[in-house]
Amino acid sequence: MSCKKLFTIQAHASVGYRFLCFFFILTFSIFGVLSAAREARAQVTCRAEVRYEVTRAEQESPEKIVFRQEEARGDSEELVREALSKKLILSTRDAMQACREQHENLSGCVASKYTSLGSLMQQMPFAARTKLQEAIEVDCKARMGTCVEPKVPEMTCVIPTPVTEVVVEGEAGSEKETAKKPGKK
Question: What's this model's pTM, rounded to 2 decimal places?
Answer without folding.
Answer: 0.59
